[in-house]
Amino acid sequence: MSTRRSLRLELDHYLGLRRALGFKLHNVGRLLGQFVDYLDEHGVHVPATESALAWATLPAGASSSWRAIRLSAVRGFAAYLHSIDPSVEVLPAGLIRHGPDRATLRVPTTLSPTLSCGFRVTMWSH
Asked: 83-108 burial string, b = 16+ CB within 10 Å, else e?
């Protein structure tokens, strides 16, 4: 993985293989193209966890779900690249959590066991 062209070529092969297996990959293909462009703009020749995380967390203020979607796309591509070039890191799972941001969840400070409409409230512990 020494040049952008080789990454672009490998991306084309990866997407072609996945599509031959029946995957549509419309959004994933677009995202991975943006990732390869990002690597090129930053002079990165071998994708790594650091560059994947930096790209996945763009734009600033994006939701954790969006960041996780972006990182998930890169994770599959990185695993494919690793099979060709062992110097490419396979991204660990769970670096960015899917689901709503904790900061956007509003948890009431007090709840009664029974709401006024008669539904029972169930509390979960994490």
From this structure: eeeeebbebeeeebeeeeeeeeeeee
b/e string for 33-67 if b means 16 or more Cβ within 10 A? eebbebbeeeebeebebebbbebbbeeeeeebeeb
φ, ψ dihedrals at 120, nearest 5°? -85, 135
Half-sphere exposure for 86 (CA within 13 Å, toward CB): 0
Strand partners, 36: none
pTM: 0.73
| Confidence at 113, pLDDT banded by 50, 70, 90 | low
Q: Reduce the DSSP state of residue 114 to 3 states and report it.
A: strand
All residues at 6 or more sequence positions from 102 whose CB lies less than 8 Å from its CB, including other chains = none
**pLDDT tens sequence across 20-59:** 999 999 999 999 999 999 999 999 999 999 999 999 999 9
Place of tokens 């008669």: 118
The C-alpha atoms of residue 56 and residue 75 are separated, in whole angstroms, by: 11
